[in-house]
Design brief:
Helix content of chain A: 40-55%
Number of helices of chain A: 4
Strand order of the largest sheet of chain A: 1-2
Structural class of chain A: alpha+beta
Strand content of chain A: 15-25%
Oligomer: heterodimer
Shape of chain B: globular
Largest interface: A-B, 23 and 40 residues
Order of helices and strands of chain A: HEEHHEH
Radius of gyration of chain B: 15 Å
Structural class of chain B: alpha/beta
Strand order of the largest sheet of chain B: 4-2-1-5-6
Radius of gyration of chain A: 26 Å
Distance between the termini of chain B: 13 Å
Largest sheet of chain A: 2 strands, antiparallel
Largest sheet of chain B: 5 strands, parallel
Number of strands of chain B: 6
Chain lengths: 82, 146
Amino acid sequence: MSLPRDVRKRIEDRLERHDAVVITAKKGVYRVFSKDEYLAKIELAKTVQPSKYRKKKPPPDPLGAVEGRVLSSLSRDEMYRK
Amino acid sequence: MLLLDTNVIVHAMYKGSQLHLPAATLLQRALREKGGYCIAPQNLIEFLSVVTRSRFVDPPMRPENATEVASTLFRSRRLRKIYPVRGTAYRAIAEGKRMNLTGTAWYDLYLAVTMRDNKVETIVTENIRDFRAVDFISAIRIQDAQ
């Protein structure tokens, strides 16, 4: 796997210090952690639970749906019946 | 390529429908992603016919609102429109004769033959049962098309 030069450098720096290295990759962005930093980050996420505070996506509504109901089956048998 | 049946558009437009969420999700995707979904003119006209009648929806949409929705769908460059070609009616007649069709099933068949003439093989619909007899396309439920 080929990594960007600055990421390789950060990994090498950690390895020189004999740290265990954890690399995460998300949408092309690499982050380099020592094992302890990474475990602390995981623990923090468990305590804070960022997903609780994340803004909820609004439901899809591409054409401006109206408040209201569909009353019957929409088979063509129904649609074309007088 | 999936064809979105008329009922998908209707359910997407009514928040109180049990199928609103999956239908609106599909329609949103169809209007954002090019090349995945299509409709036929028959669907737009049926949509207008359904949403302006109190027998099918409560409340019915005002004609100016319903036609605005239909125009948006028609104008979308991402949602493909498929059309009957010169031989579509003739082929529908031949298929219907072979299947011994009667009544309103002819409208389903005409849509299915329009799909086949445009190399579209799958329809997303509330009524997969209506397309069971048509052996040259497949039908999947709205909630299964996610």
